[in-house]
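job 3f2a | input accepted
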Amino acid sequence: MHFRITAVLVAAFLLPAVHAQDDLVRKTSATATDSTGYRFTTVVSAEATPVENQASSGTCWSYSANSFLESEMIKAGGPAIHLAKMYTARKSYEDKADSYVRMHGSLNYGDGGEPHDVVNMYGKYGTMPEENYLGLNYGTDKNQFGEMQAVLKAMLDEVIKAPNRGKLTPVWKKAFNGVLDAYLGPVPETFAYKGKSYTPQSFAKEVVKLDPANYEEFISVTSAPFWQKSMMMVPDNWAFQQCWNVPMEDMIGIIDNALRNGYTVAWGGDVSEPSFSWKNGIAWVPETPADELTKEQKADLFTGPKPEMKITPELRQEAFDNYTTGDDHGMQLTGIAKDQAGNEWYIVKNSWGVKNDHDGYLYMSKNYVRYKTTSFMVNRKAIPMELQKKLKA
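job 3f2a | predicted structure (393 res):
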């Protein structure tokens, strides 16, 4: 899951933010209105930490799923803090490099990942507050990963040639980690938090206190049996993780139940549609297919609520099969709002900074989620009880 920005620069509207007493908690305001026709009323809104900026890095998966864990911490009565996204990403790069070499290069390598990578790295390596590992060790104040990843990939591609008389060199991992140290900085063995020293593992156990076993990841495809685990067939699933495959409407039911019970959702999907506008903070599905939109229709995409295309499981699957739905981006669903026509939309926290018309948030229609979701992750307690019973071990 990388990121691919498609923004239509048309009329804008503003969503003011209401902050709780703790500056590191954000809840959506009750209403949001703009001059072009949208009027939203918040139905439910969970607490989340402030919006961040992944900048020039394909680490949306780390930002969105770590933000999801931050909201989990808040809901459980823990502190509202930013977790170190670059620590998670670095540990993922290390494990991914090992798998890449073991597979003789027959594996996707790069910045991308999935929500389960964050939970897996947390369970295996722990975590730390963001200020203890920013990953900015090369003279910039924002992520710039192009050069680093090019160097790492070139190194791995030479390693798998096994020039050491057909054997892997015993020091390749040390060399790989040396590059990560140069660009991201060495990982601290210990760090201080509120006057006490922690390791990443002890911080996860004593401060974060989240159980990795509590999280379930879902997909919805017609090419595999429902209510069984199936491979998430996207390039960035380098861990070969299997996820629960559920019918499309149960996907919506799980998301709704989570949000209405104060949980958030780690979401992955396609953001390449012309009806996804980061600037305007709107994502929906017009009745007219994307490749048939006229110039006039494109200019009118974000001027107020309009009828949407009916999404079926077959249409959803076709978009996967013909590559019009890709595993582009990861975000966090934090609430539900209604427009003036009574349609429900999801409130979504992004990681592209705050310079859009919603201070970094956007509204995504339920039909867009039906159509363009590739995967999502929730706390197991957030799943409706009747659906929990269908999850087979």
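job 3f2a | The first strand starts at residue 17 and ends at 19.
job 3f2a | closed
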